[in-house]
Amino acid sequence: MLLVVVTLLTVAVACGIPNDSAPRQIADDKVPFGLLGPTTTTPANSAPNGPAVLLYFLDGTQVRGVNRSVPQRDPMSVLNELVKGIIDIDPVGITTALPKDVQIVGATLDGATLIVTLNNAILNISGAEQKNAFGQLVYTATDLAGVDNVRFRIPDANGVVQDVPTPTDNGAKAGPVDRSDFLSLQS
Length: 187
Hints:
The chain is of the alpha+beta class. The chain has one domain. Helix content is 20%, strand content 25%. The protein is built from three helices and nine strands, in the order αββαβββαββββ. It has helices at 2-14, 75-83, 127-142; strands spanning 52-59, 62-69, 94-95, 104-110, 113-118, 149-155, 161-163, 166-168, 171-173. The strands form three sheets. It has a four-stranded mixed β-sheet with strand order 4-5-6-7. A three-stranded antiparallel β-sheet has the order 2-1-3. Strands 8-9 form a two-stranded antiparallel sheet. A hairpin with a 2-residue loop joins β8 (166-168) and β9 (171-173). The longest helix is centred in the last third of the chain and has 16 residues, at 127-142. It is globular and about 85 Å long. Residues 31-47 have low confidence and may be disordered.
């Protein structure tokens, strides 16, 4: 009987997962289909720390949705998570155009328009980098239910909140913007 148990244990160990000394590439045809490449779907509440949302970062010159958990699925929580920037578990190669010191001061919904108030750190960048930063905010915000477009505001030197023209693919635009204003960022 002891011989049978030892033989079964030896066979079980021999059929186990190989013990590699370093990571190795798995051929694409051996990986389950759903695990190949990025997905455009967001798993419902699969994150251990709260609901999962898509935050949009830059992958080269295009935006790429990255799953992240947030305490709540409200605009303020989601945009605050976006401005935190890249974290260790994010895909390799993504970047952000948002300055490290940018802050979301407020986010209120007016119909289907999300009014986002930022601190003036967003003005510390310019050109394509500033357009990309606003694009990240717009893609992330409009991924939320009920948000079709975004209007940006920034407090002036006296603390009075003013609408800010948003840099888009077609120059600065006053008023609300949506994804169609940032088509150059789509893959």
